[in-house]
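RETRY 2/3 - previous attempt timed out on the joint model. Re-submitting the same 778-residue input unchanged.
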Amino acid sequence: MSDLAVHEHEANPTGFAHQFEDLEQQHDAGRLGMWIFLATEILFFGGMFTSYTIYRSLHPAAFDIGSHLLEVKFGATNTAVLICSSLTMALSIHSAQTGKRKGTIIGWLIFTMLLGATFLFLKFRFEWYHDWLEHIMPGFGFVYRPEWGANGPQVQMFMCFYFFLTGLHALHMIVGLGILTVLVIMAARGRFTTQYYVPLEISGLYWHFVDIVWIFLFPLLYLIGGRYSTGGH
Amino acid sequence: MSTATADIHEVPAESRVHYLNARYGIKSWLLTLDHKRIGLLYLGTITFMFLIGGIAATLMRLNLIEPQGALVEPETYNKLFSTHGIVMVFFFLVPSIPATLGNFLIPLMIGARDVAFPKLNLMSWYIFVTGCCCMLYAVMTGGVDTGWTFYTPYSSTYAHTSVLLAALGIFIAGFSSILTGLNFIVTIHKMRAPGMTWFRLPLFIWSMYATSMIFVLGTPVIAVTLLLLGLERILHVGIFDPALGGDPLLFQHLFWFYSHPAVYIMILPGMGVVSELIPAFSRKRIFGYSFVAFSSLAIAVISFVVWGHHMFVTGQSVYAGLVFSVLSFLVAIPSAIKVFNWTATLYKGSISYQAPMLYALGFIGLFTMGGLTGLFLASLATDVHLNGTYFIVAHFHYIMVGGAVMAYLGGIHYWWPKITGRLYPDLWARFSALVIFVGFNLTFFPQFVLGYLGMPRRYAMYPAEFQSLNVLSSAGASVLAVGYVIPLVYLIWSLKYGPPAGPNPWKAKGLEWTIQSPPPTENFEETPIVTEEAYNYPTVGGVSV
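RETRY 2/3 succeeded.
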């Protein structure tokens, strides 16, 4: 959605599309469009979260075992990385609003991209890749471990949800990196002014949304199963 | 509607530039950003898909002439009804009115130059075509035999047909729905002309708004459900497989969470069309405007909390069944509000029975019938008897074909002069409306009886005592098919030979009738200023003229 709006502006140096009466109407339309898109995204992830929740309540023991297969240190690091990337994204919008040099805008955008790339690198290199080596990637030589007992299939289901949810999230991150690349190019051409920064704003909405999804994923996947409570199960 | 443009003079279409002759050539269509042309691209695509679905239905009805199956093997029959269902639901009915008439009319009705995101609009069409190609490829490479519902574990484990391809087609086409809905919501919120307040909007716009809400909130859930299904099928993990800790009922819950609201995606636009046709041909203001408007939103909202009535006999908890039953009865209220308001509009109107009006009147009757039989199915006890029988088939065809398709054809006939600038032969149009009405009832009324007598749906064979009713139904289907072919012929004929329509052949109200037919590319030469409510038909001494 947002990169389409971005392209529209590229076609026209003033950033104004013919179907609108004025720029303000166009900006309002862009913002509303992104909010509605995010509503569809909530329903999209919502279907997954619902399924996850149902199965966790059906198979709590297996989901606890599954959660313990994940490395909290990477999840926690990535949470911090993403929260920082939301800050740098917000700062890039702020620097456009307050009329900073285009170098400043580009700097914050690239910083955001680096943080996003760090997240993906940690996720794929140190989590997915190791899971594959340890045969706990469903569909790619998943091996039930003896200590799971009868819980094997349900542990596999947990891992299935883990890969699906984090995979979809990573896909959204990759799309986000694409959008940020377009924004960097636009910023380099000096397109953003104190009057015109809507592409930054609505792309920021998207980026923050993807972060928020992770904020929900991290505790649901990594922190369940009484890992840190003293009482235990 | 707008006073400034109340008496527009006709300018011959040949002597001026409009959206059809502004540019020529295949590229000017495939790369168009004009909402009117995109509407026509959809019209061509879904007409083609309708033919595919229709051929499958024809073969099914031919097979059912004889109890042992007159034509095809049972496996082929399974593929026929699955193809018919999937194509008609996801590739014809869901996009039918919104993507064609909605695209064409929304900017015209609210006084805008285009939808809010024209490029997104064109992209939606390409996404839709990609989905269609996937589905057609699935049909050609062996077909799919799961029924349109893709119930697990059949679709996930046991079916050896092109399930993944068909599901992929639906998944892709779903994004077209989402983006169209998004575009419409933003357009209706942000692009209205000065003076076009919410309560001056034509009721078609209200119904499009309600439909778009379902597009945006429902479609993502079917997308994720099909993804889970694909995951299970490819990786052999047990998301819906009880042997591996999964639950096949979860699939049904997720599926109907979208697919019940999808029923309203199909019928709400039809209701919007009828709300335009009834006042125009009764020469009368719509009765109870705000009730009709808000009942669209009420239907959209309630539609999200009734899905469980598809699962009364699946082992869902009895208490859940009770709640879903009560909620399902609630949908009848806004639907009835609409029907009563339409009939009240007819009361003391000066009614003319032109072709679009015949479709609208047919809609009211058939939709009422489909709606009332829906109440049988919302009742827990009767549903146990009727579930999975031809009663259900008849019920939803009364809504989907008797309702949605009748309204779609009514809308096409009503706005055809605006779209093409040509009139079609009215006598033929009235005749075909009548043929469709008769053929439809002959096809589907016997199916109510068959279902009540206990004939199950989705079987290639049946006990011999059901033959006479099945033959009647098949005979009706052939009448219906003729009824669908006639408009195809004379509408295409009218493109070249039809007399010029003029800006407002029906003397109807609404911004779209204040401009030339076919409309200019930019729709309005200057942005209209709206000063009146919708449906402001003149009345003399309380009697409309």
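The beta strands of chain B are 539-540, 543-544. Closing ticket.
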